[in-house]
Amino acid sequence: MNFDEYPLMSQIKETKEVFWINSKYECINISQSGGLSIEDIQDAEARLKRFAPYIETVFPETAENGGIIESPLAEISKMKTSLEAAANHPIQGRLLLKCDSHLPISGSIKARGGIYEVLKHAEDLALAEGMLSLKDDYSVLKDNRFKEFFSRYKIAVGSTGNLGLSIGIMSAALGFKVYVHMSSDARQWKKDLLRRKGVTVIEYSSDYSKAVEEGRRQSDLDPSSYFVDDENSQNLFLGYAVAALRIQNQLKDMRITVDEAHPLFVYLPCGVGGGPGGVAFGLKILFGSNVHCFFAEPTHSPCMLVGMMTGLHNQISVQDLGIDNITEADGLAVGRPSGFVGKTMENLLSGIFTIEDSKLYKLLSMLADTENIYIEPSAAAGFPGPCLLMNSDEGKDYIKAMGLWGKMNKSTHIVWATGGSMVPETIKMSYYHKGKTLIAENPCNFQKI
Ligand SMILES: *Cc1c(COP(=O)(O)O)cnc(C)c1O
After folding, report:
1. Do 239 and 294 belong to one domain?
2. Whose Cα sits closest to atom 1 in ligand 1?
3. What are the pLDDT digits (tens) for 291-306?
């Protein structure tokens, strides 16, 4: 295939950082995309409410929020000052961090989609068996008769780590037999933690796509086994999309307006696409043309970027372009994007930027120093977003094309921190020190973000 017509392609192949603006983006209000609408998101939210009494009893850390799995939206003014100093340029508007790094139960954005999909499957099974009705108090699900019932069923998933944690912890708590197929990038501590919970972990020496393929194959051979399909699952996607309803309320509580005069910018780290895609889809349904969503990917795993830019979606992988898909951002180490997400977001996503691994560490150290918040490398990928938007030619052109020049001082930027609170203390500190060392070695390189 010849991709010379794409001006960014040679830089992408050389794993240089790029900022791609989606030429197919339409600044419009929508009521549906890919056949999914607000009703589907509300249905998912209602299901999570039905399960709240159960979640509250089984995971006491969710009790203060009544069994609803949600994370804080925090203003990070000190981090903003540090970013401005590093980029040598002001960031107009407010800078907020969505702390999915600190979601209860599994400490990453996967606690939205992954847990939701397991709950949906459990509900479907129990309803079909006549053991449960929609009006019941779902805390009965912790009874032994339900555990015994669910133990007759299996759940399987392929994962780079965090999806496995979410699916594994939730499925094991309900009583399912769980099989997590882990790619080579998955961190050892994630595998160890799952094994301690009674989950069967199968390890692969190849990347995420292979782990998914093999997991699916084994699961399909067994009629009692349900495969969580990270690439194509609408349930997973809707579980993520519920975040938009929740953040709408959090913004209201903070008295932050989103309208034509007050644009909202959201920066989401992207792997296969389900997490950031689901969240961005929900935001576009709720805020329409007033929200602008950008994905962030490692320079060595820009799968959604090449899929959306070429329009080939899941018909192209980064390996097809000679890119190795090797990154320390384990949650983003995906070589082939979800075609379903790429197509659903085709006209809704504003753009995608890529980031070098070394910057992920620098950014997570900066966040720890300024705000005392610790996140994992993948979760820091969104931080260059506000600087790129205001500093780069691509960003400035976008702002002007959208008629937002002059409104930026009334804007809000949300960087989505997608994981980190489950990282063991020693590893957390090694990430932090690695970032400090990299900043000490090369502070200048940082001014380009
Ligand atoms: C999985 C993950 C993402 C991206 O989600 P996808 O659905 O794979 O795109 C981002 N950050 C972290 C920490 C993750 O674990």
Report:
1. yes
2. 331
3. 999 999 999 999 999 9
Q: Separation of 335 CA from ligand 1 center, angstroms?
A: 13
Mean pLDDT of 75-87: 95
Q: Which residue has the tokens 């780079």?
A: 160
Q: What is the pTM of this model?
A: 0.97
Q: Is 337 in the pocket of ligand 1 (CB under 6 A)?
A: no
Answer with the one of 233, 256, 278 that is the final residue of a domain. 233
Q: Is 366 helix (H, G, I), strand (E, B) or coil?
A: helix
Residues 227 and 217 in one domain: yes
The answer on 325 and 196 residing in a single domain is no
Q: 338 CB less than 6 Å from ligand 1?
A: no
300 C-alpha to ligand 1 centroid (Å): 15
Alpha helices in 334-410 (DSSP H): 339-344, 357-371, 384-391, 393-401
Distance 63 CA to ligand 1 centre (A): 26
Dump pLDDT digits (tens) for 228-262.
999 999 999 999 999 999 999 999 999 999 999 99
Given the DSSP bridges, would you call strands 32-33 and 412-417 parallel, antiparallel or unpaired?
unpaired
Domain shared by 287 and 402, yes or no:
yes
pLDDT of residue 442: 86
37 and 142 together in one domain: no
Cβ atoms 174, 148 nearer than 8 A = no
The response to whether residue 419 sits with its C-beta less than 6 Å from ligand 1 reads: yes
Q: Among the three residues 233, 258, 274, which one is the final residue of a domain in this structure? A: 233
Label residue 73 by pLDDT band (50, 70, 90): very high
- Residue 194 falls within a domain, yes or no? yes
